[in-house]
Amino acid sequence: MKVAVINFSGNVGKTTIARHLLLPRIPGAKLISVESINAGEAGTKSLRGRQFAVLQEYLQAVESTVVDVGASNVEELLALMNRYRGSHEDFDHYIVPAVAAIKQQKDTIATLVELARMGVPAQKLRLVFNMIDEATNVADAFRPLLAFLQEQPLACADTECRLGANEIYESLKISGQGVDEVLNDDTDYKAAIAKTGDANEKLALARRLAARRLAVGVAPELDACFGALRLGTDVAPLVRVA
Q1: What's the angle, vertex CA 139, arms to CA 136 and CA 140, rounded to 5?
Q2: Which DSSP letter does residue 10 get?
Q3: What pLDDT sits at residue 48?
Q4: Which top-level group of life is the source organism from (predicted)?
C-alpha cells in the first residue's frame, strides 16, 4: 500500500499521522519525507519536491510506503505530478489531515479541490480530523469543511477518523521513536530509577516512563482512527458524521 499524507497548510499534523498512525499499521512500509525544511529527521529518507522523478522510480520499486509531503513542497510536488501525467495513480490513498482553525479548513478544501482536479477519485481521498479535544464535537468544529463535502463529495470523511492533541508526539520528535516503539519497550523504569543514584539519569528514565504511559493511553485512539480510515477497502464517497 502506498499512501501520501498531504495538505497545503502547515501545522495540521502530517508528520504525526504519517509516522505514528500509518507507518506502524502498514506492513513493510517505509517513511519518505518530502520536505525542504527540517529534512532528514531520524528514521526517514528525505527528498525534495523537485526530485519527483526519483520519487516516482522509488514508488515503482516498493510494495508499501508512506510519503509525508511537507507544506513547503506541496505546490511544487503537485505541479510535477501534473507534468508526469498519470503519476497520481501511483498512490493507493491520499490522507489529508484537517484541524479546526478556519484558515486550515480553507486550505484543506483547496487541497481536496486540487487533488480532484488532477484526477484523484474521492474513494482515494480520506480525511483525518486532527488535534481535537475530547469534548469537541467534530461535526460542529468542522462545519465549513463538512458542508463543502456535502455539496461536493470529493473525499471520504468519517468523523470517527479523529485524533486528539497529545504531548507525546512533540516529545518523540527529539528521540525519533514511534509510539509503537515506545509501547514495545519493556524496560522496568521504576526499578531503574530506584537503582541509579545519578539525578540526571533518574530524570531521563522518568521521561521515558512518562512517554510510555502516554503511549499506552494514545494507542487505542490511533488504532480506532486507522480502522475508521478503511484503507483496505474501496468505499463510496461518504461524509459520515458519528
Answers
A1: 65
A2: S
A3: 61
A4: Bacteria
Closest CA to 59 of 83, 82, 81, 42: 81
Do residues 235 and 123 lie in contact, with contact meaning Cβ atoms separated by under 8 Å? yes
Sign for the CA dihedral angle at 96, 102, 107, 113 comes to positive
Q: What is the H or E stretch that residue 31 is in?
A: strand 30-34
More confident residue, 101 or 71: 101
Integer CA distances (angstroms), 64 to 26, 56, 221, in order: 7, 13, 23
C-alpha 217: how far from chain center: 18
**37, 25 Cβ separation under 8 angstroms:** no
List, in sequence order, every beta strand (DSSP E) within 23-137: 30-34, 45-47, 65-69, 93-98, 125-129
| 9 Cα distance to chain centroid | 13
| 178 phi-psi bin (left φ>0, alpha ψ -120 to 50, beta other) | beta
- What are 69's strand-pairing partners? 34
Tens of pLDDT, residue by residue over 20-48, are 999 999 999 999 988 754 444 444 555 56
Q: State the Cα–Cα distance between residues 54 and 69, nearest whole angstrom.
A: 15
Q: What is the pLDDT of residues 122-176, one digit of tens each?
A: 999 999 999 998 888 999 999 999 999 999 999 999 999 999 999 999 889 888 8
* CATH number for domain 2-166+224-240, candidates 3.40.50.970, 3.50.50.60, 3.40.50.1100, 3.40.50.300: 3.40.50.300
Q: Is 178 helix (H, G, I), strand (E, B) or coil?
A: coil
Q: Which amino acid is at 80?
A: L
Distance CA 18, CA 6 (A): 10
Grid cell at residue 65: 510506503
